[in-house]
Amino acid sequence: MQDALSDVAARIDAPAIIDIVIVSLAIYWLLLLIRGTTAMTVLRGVAVLLLSAFIVSRILDLTMFNWILRNSVTGLVIAVLIVFQPEMRRALERLGRTGLHSAFGRQEYQELIEIVKKSTSKLAQSRTGALIILERETGLQDVIDTGIRMNSVLSEEVLTMIFDVHSPLHDGAVVLRRDRVIAAGCTLPLSEAPLPPDHGMRHRAGMGIAELTDAVVVIVSEERGSISLASNGRLITDLDLKRLDRQLHRLFGLIIEDETLNNQNPANTMESRT
Fold it and tell me: pTM for the whole thing?
């Protein structure tokens, strides 16, 4: 045993250590990326299934089954790429982000959040449906091009006017970039994630853009007057103003706390798996 350990130690040189560190960091980063999503559950299930199949095939000496396992690695890699496509897309987007927060100060973000919160409160009280997209670091030009360009100064009055039932723009989404209303009446991609029956097209549209970008989406239900928030492929429903304020501050990096979208009440939190 000691000789074997000595032999292994002798083979470990600087390149081997660097190789181990890089692979370990890559695996750790991927696990952080999918932590708290259904992708982690899928990955765990796949790992258990493969490990069980390998053990059974070895114990029973199943020659054909062993051959299938050895030659299915390429197919499994492709399957993983397909199943975890949303997580991988978000990872690549994170690598390409340019640090929007540095160009927009803390005070400006707080003012943005305050306007959105007050507008959302009014819209919820009057049961006026709304879909408010707060752009972060991933550009939303494709979404903006589907709506009406405004480029107006953001204010509570502007937001409530856009979503007034008599406004021709009230059925679409509004895109906010920092302190500007960039476009209104925008069309969003629809999520295919399973949602409760009482969640309509606004929630599905909000989830759709939250799956594809890092945008934060505030949704007001026309039927129930409830407030929801979609971000990173997750949807939190039935938010009060205090929780909405806390989530917006956290998502824009204004507070650091242990609470995340994953730590919400499971009954009020839904995750996308496309």
Answer: 0.63
16, 52, 183 from 135: Cα distances, Å: 43, 45, 11
Could you say which of 38, 61, 95 is where a domain stops?
Answer: 95
> Hey, what long-range contacts does 155-164 have (CB within 8 A, 24 or more apart)?
155/115, 156/115, 156/118, 156/119, 156/122, 159/115, 159/116, 159/119, 159/123, 159/130, 159/132, 160/119, 160/122, 160/123, 160/128, 163/123, 163/128, 163/129, 163/130, 163/220, 164/128
My answer on whether 136 and 267 are in the same domain is yes
Residue 192 pLDDT grade (very low, low, confident, very high; cuts 50, 70, 90): confident
- How far is CA 167 from each of CA 133, 172, 215, rounded to the nearest angstrom? 18, 10, 25
